[in-house]
Amino acid sequence: MNPTIAMITFRSMLGRRRALLLLVLPAALVFLAAALRMIGENDLDVSENVLQRFGLATLLPLLALIAGTGVIGPEIDDGQLMYVLTKPIPRQVIVLTKLAVAIVLVAAFAAVPTLLAGLLLSGTAEGMAPAFTVGVVVGGIAYSAVFVALAVASRNAVTIGLLYALVWETLLGNFAPGAKSASIQQWALSVTDALTGASYVRSTVDLGVAVPLLVAVTVAGTLLAVVRLRSLSVASAE
């Protein structure tokens, strides 16, 4: 971790425009949960649907995409990262710092609102609120690693990330069991399933498979980002 890089990245990510992007979806989730509670539509079935479909399947990947690509992608595009690469800072430190910032942002803007929405909807019943919060955190770590790697590897990281999150995980996942099983969303849901007694929460992937896959994807994404950043600095020097 490099505190200076982390501070600069946080300042950049929490500027006016990006802060608004980070706030809109969480605010919508909490508002929806509050509205459902007010009208009495907050049983466990409704709670599970909101937390899974809005929190885990929509809010989490979109916020992770904004955070994961935003912490490094714009700096590559406008050339600001070249200044950092000229300093004697190991590439893995740069990547790990950027990834840590992305994870903190996802925890703040996705996990905390999910916990608040869960408590508004179902309180502490069946441990659903904390279970989904943990699922969002572990899923957010994996998503962030993938999207940071995409941002380093491609200028079209946002497009590729949207295709993965919306087409592969959401669209194809509803029709192709294989696509659903190869999904960070389902792996995170497996962790959630293991932590709650609610019968409505069900994942298509066993916990013993989901956890190693989450770890593998996180490590692979981080290593890919480091390798690509090294080649980026060499190419720039030439």
Automatic annotation (TrEMBL):
<keyword id="KW-0472">Membrane</keyword>
<feature type="transmembrane region" description="Helical">
    <location>
        <begin position="207"/>
        <end position="227"/>
    </location>
</feature>
<feature type="transmembrane region" description="Helical">
    <location>
        <begin position="51"/>
        <end position="72"/>
    </location>
</feature>
<keyword id="KW-1133">Transmembrane helix</keyword>
<keyword id="KW-0812">Transmembrane</keyword>
<feature type="transmembrane region" description="Helical">
    <location>
        <begin position="157"/>
        <end position="176"/>
    </location>
</feature>
<feature type="transmembrane region" description="Helical">
    <location>
        <begin position="127"/>
        <end position="150"/>
    </location>
</feature>
<dbReference type="Pfam" id="PF12730">
    <property type="entry name" value="ABC2_membrane_4"/>
</dbReference>
<feature type="transmembrane region" description="Helical">
    <location>
        <begin position="93"/>
        <end position="121"/>
    </location>
</feature>
<protein>
    <submittedName>
        <fullName>ABC transporter permease</fullName>
    </submittedName>
</protein>
